[in-house]
Amino acid sequence: MHPAGLAAAGTPRQPSKRRIPVSQPGMADPHQLFDDTSSAQNQGYRAQRAPSGLGYPAASASPQAAFLADPVSNMAMAYGSSLAAQGKELVDKNIDRFIPVTKLKYYFAVDTMYVGKKLGLLVFPYLHQDWEVQYQQDTPVAPRFDVNAPDLYIPAMAFITYVLVAGLALGTQDRFSPDLLGLQASSALAWLTLEVLAILLSLYLVTVNTDLTTIDLVAFLGYKYVGMIGGVLMGLLFGKIGYYLVLGWCCVSIFVFMFPILQGVMMKPKALGGGRMRRSGRCG
């Protein structure tokens, strides 16, 4: 056997050495999935955080410097803010001229106890004794303190409920349609407007000076929707007999409820100052 063969057989074979290419400084690692941008960001951050002459970061610009840098936009912003404030103030001053917001707040000052008592008074007014509206100094107390005071919460809710109940009645007769429901609501609102105008015209023709306002008339005339709701519901349950019985009862109840209150308000002359007559009353 050749000595070279023996040497090859007895000597272990050295592993082959592979040359791994050395990446250049500007080249990326071929095994890296994403580019490493941290070094560039750090360099940019160092550039932004360049130290000042004393070795500390440069201080941010002051508000005066910012204003001097862009004075036109700041002046426009200040002018726009002042203009918006003036417009809001103008609207707040003139809105009461067309919509008496403060008076409407009074007519919606109700609570759950008042609503329950008022509904019971509208349906069963026969046992009620004290019909006088209570006053505190020269202004009437809020409706939640006086069950005789007019409010707009019950008429508004009763009107909406009446329209919905009327739509239910039309649906039971296979006559429901959005147009017919809108016509029902429009006709109810038109009749209420005509009633208010007729009463105002009558008061003007007979020259009666009273504290009864248009909102008071809308409130008192809107109470009739409570009886109309009861009549429609009883008509759905018991037919025409139940409808006419409940409707007749509610008509008499509304008359008994409104007559003493309206009589006391209309017979009381207006105060010399143009407001309500001064009369003391308790709030509860």
TrEMBL record:
GO terms classed as biological process: endoplasmic reticulum to Golgi vesicle-mediated transport; protein transport
Bilayer-spanning residue ranges: 152-171, 183-205, 217-237, 243-262
Similarity annotation: Belongs to the YIF1 family.
Protein topology in the membrane: Multi-pass membrane protein
InterPro entries in alphabetical order: Yif1_fam
Pfam (any one): YIF1
Stored PANTHER family: PROTEIN YIF1B, YIP1 INTERACTING FACTOR HOMOLOG YIF1 PROTEIN
Residue segments, region Disordered: 1-37
Main localization (coarse): endoplasmic reticulum
Protein name, UniProt field: Protein YIF1
Compartments it resides in: Endoplasmic reticulum membrane; Golgi apparatus membrane
Superkingdom of the source species: Eukaryota
Keywords: Endoplasmic reticulum, Golgi apparatus, Membrane, Protein transport, Transmembrane, Transmembrane helix, Transport
GO terms for cellular component: COPII-coated ER to Golgi transport vesicle; endoplasmic reticulum membrane; endoplasmic reticulum-Golgi intermediate compartment; Golgi membrane
Function comment: Has a role in transport between endoplasmic reticulum and Golgi.
Species in which this protein is naturally found: Neovison vison
